[in-house]
Write a structure and sequence with these properties.
A nine-stranded mixed beta sheet has the order 3-2-1-4-5-6-7-8-9. The protein has helices at residues 19-29, 57-70, 84-97, 121-128, 139-148, 159-170, 228-234, and strands at 5-13, 33-45, 48-54, 75-78, 101-104, 134-135, 176-179, 201-208, 211-218. Helix 1 packs across helix 7, helix 2 packs parallel to helix 3 (84-97) and helix 5 crosses helix 6 (159-170). The chain has one domain (5-234): Ribokinase (UDP-N-acetylmuramoyl-L-alanine:D-glutamate ligase, 3-Layer(aba) Sandwich). It is of the alpha/beta class. InterPro entries: HMP/HMP-P_kinase_dom (IPR004399), PM/HMP-P_kinase-1 (IPR013749), Ribokinase-like (IPR029056). One of its GO terms (cellular component) is cytosol. GO terms for molecular function: hydroxymethylpyrimidine kinase activity; phosphomethylpyrimidine kinase activity. Residues 13-233 form the Pyridoxamine kinase/Phosphomethylpyrimidine kinase domain.
Length: 235
């Protein structure tokens, strides 16, 4: 059996719970081979991001070219891209190397810190989304993407609202969109929960090729959510 080759283009998390470090663990657990191209170094822990050091664009290109040119890449997964310049660099590399499958975790807002500055969303929309096989935004990220595309803000009050959000984001270019519903848990009757005690179900919505897939999970109350988005996108 041929081992899948996955190149992760993302930031490094000093605490090991998210970013490149989390991605490599998940990829290895799925029996695939993980490579990395580091976009930024972060001083980070479970409470948030305390500082960011950006990697020069020329060095990022060298990392990508080294992995693709020697080992080869079946899938690229992007995480923290950190700046408009980095998005442009990644888009150019994806086109130049003709990468067949691209998974994008937009990482616009995580743990209260904007790991992709708001001004970079336009670059994301204009370039990267059109090359994306699967986009994995949470609800706040999906809202920001839609607002910056001129769409009216969507308030999630039902599964139908999640469907509309996924459909609208997918229309911007990605082949598939997975909207993660953890920011809007539902009651048992699938209306939005107002209190902690009412939270019973989380619904993720996958949309592409004109079809919806609803993934239901029991709601779990936890503060241990650091790196969950990174891990899911690598799964």
């Amino acid at each position: 059996m041929v081992q899948g080759r996955v190149l992760v283009i993302a930031g490094s998390d000093s605490s090991g719970g998210a970013g490149l470090e989390a991605d490599q663990k998940v990829i290895a657990a799925h029996g695939c081979y993980a490579m990395t191209a580091t976009t930024a170094l972060t001083a980070q822990d479970t409470t948030g991001v305390h500082d960011i050091h950006h990697v020069p664009q020329e060095f990022l290109v060298k990392q990508i070219d080294a992995c693709v040119g020697d080992i080869g890449v079946d899938v690229v997964k992007t995480g923290m891209l950190a700046s408009p310049a980095t998005i442009g660099t990644v888009v150019e590399a994806l086109k130049r190397h003709k990468i067949p499958r691209v998974v994008v975790d937009p990482m616009i807002a995580t743990s209260g810190a904007e790991l992709l500055p708001r001004e970079a969303v336009a670059e994301l929309l204009e370039g990267l989304l059109r090359l994306t096989t699967v986009l994995t935004p949470n609800i706040p990220e999906a809202k920001l993407i839609l607002e910056d595309s001129g769409y009216k803000s969507v308030e999630v009050k039902s599964v139908r609202d999640l469907d509309e959000m996924a459909r609208s984001v997918q229309a911007l270019g990605p082949e598939w969109v997975l909207v993660k519903g953890g920011h809007a848990p539902f009651k048992a009757d699938f209306t939005v929960a107002e209190t902690e005690d009412e939270k019973a179900i989380v619904v993720d919505v996958l949309y592409g090729q004109g079809e919806f897939l609803h993934i239901q999970s029991p709601y779990q109350s936890s503060t241990n959510t650091h790196g969950t988005g990174c891990s899911l996108a690598c799964g």
